[in-house]
């Protein structure tokens, strides 16, 4: 399936959550060109209803959108970072999948990526923002009512471009990983469980790491990291379970891989990887062997210039599907999974 996001909208980022509390997976798409967020409400059969009339008009061009239930109402709120604007906005969700009640929070310079997690173990979701312009991440601790404390900043490598969170040392405290696009590294910041973090430890990646994701790729209960590198590779760094990682192993992708996500696409309890290839209008799927290694890529067509990818079960068949935001032709592609690691042709 392919859905229009409107003329010259240039969709840039996708968040997948249940925004209207009906038990179905929905999508929120941030459109760089029209400075608007559009909601696609899932029907549970693989189709979506465009609720553009309930979208949000932004003052600035959005770069990334994230989601989480920040006020414990079981509906997902959204957090948005903008191009060259030094703040993020948090919007509250209403039943129709619409958003309102904007609250603004300062960040570092040029926030480029956001992720959500409970960093101080108080059952309230917090936000981390990767600030490309000043080589920092900002941590905003949540109060549980949809509002957040002022930022605390931590140093990263040069030009942090993407961030993700997980527990890398099995201490029940969430940690942060950041892809540093201008120095070919990732930074790992281990959390103390009180909302603060240790100084970064860096690991080498391929050239120009643009995106990072996390999963247990060798089924050892220790989390690993995958990085999409603009040199047409992904790097897999296997975790030791103590917050440190082995040297990267690289796998080929399509041209200019940009976004990366993980999921079990063939129902074998082994995590797989999907990458959006910005340079050749495809996604690459790499099926995992469960030992930290992966099969060669299988490619599927998308729209023009895939900018963001997401994973979810959109038709309630227990098989994971893939959604892609196509910056170049103002569409969103949905590729329904067969449960064996292969996918139907896109519908746009």
UniProtKB/TrEMBL annotation:
Signal peptide: none annotated. Keywords: Signal. InterPro entries: FG-GAP, Integrin_alpha_N. The keyword Signal applies. The keyword Endoplasmic reticulum does not apply. This is VCBS repeat-containing protein.
């Amino acid at each position: 399936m392919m859905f229009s996001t409107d003329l010259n909208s240039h969709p840039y980022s996708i968040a997948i959550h249940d925004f209207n509390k009906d038990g179905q997976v929905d999508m929120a798409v941030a459109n760089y060109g029209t400075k608007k967020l559009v909601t696609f409400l899932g029907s549970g059969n693989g189709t979506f209803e465009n609720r553009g009339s309930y979208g949000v008009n932004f003052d600035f061009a959005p770069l990334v959108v994230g989601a989480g239930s920040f006020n414990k109402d079981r509906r997902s709120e959204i957090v948005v970072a903008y191009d060259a604007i030094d703040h993020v906005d948090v919007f509250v969700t209403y039943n129709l999948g619409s958003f309102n009640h904007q609250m603004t929070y300062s960040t570092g310079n040029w926030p480029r990526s956001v992720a959500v997690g409970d960093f101080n173990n108080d059952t309230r979701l917090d936000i981390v923002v990767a600030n490309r312009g000043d080589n920092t991440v900002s941590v905003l601790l949540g109060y549980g009512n949809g509002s957040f404390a002022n930022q605390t900043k931590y140093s990263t490598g040069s030009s942090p471009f993407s961030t993700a969170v997980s527990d890398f040392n099995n201490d029940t405290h969430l940690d942060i990983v950041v892809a540093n696009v201008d120095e070919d590294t990732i930074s790992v910041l281990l959390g103390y469980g009180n909302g603060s973090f240790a100084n970064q430890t860096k690991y080498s990646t391929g050239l120009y790491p643009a995106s990072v994701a996390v999963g247990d790729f060798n089924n050892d209960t220790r989390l690993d990291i995958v990085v999409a590198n603009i040199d047409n590779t992904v790097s897999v760094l296997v975790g030791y379970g103590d917050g440190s990682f082995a040297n990267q192993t690289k796998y080929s992708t399509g041209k200019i891989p940009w976004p990366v996500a993980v999921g079990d696409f063939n129902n074998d309890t082994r995590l797989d990887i999907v990458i959006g290839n910005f340079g050749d209008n495809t996604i690459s799927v790499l099926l995992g062997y469960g030992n930290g290694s992966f099969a060669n890529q299988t490619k599927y067509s998308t729209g023009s210039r895939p900018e963001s990818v997401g994973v979810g079960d959109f038709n309630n068949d227990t098989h994971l599907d893939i959604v892609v935001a196509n910056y170049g032709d103002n569409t969103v592609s949905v590729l329904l999974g067969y449960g064996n690691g292969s996918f139907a042709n896109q519908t746009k």
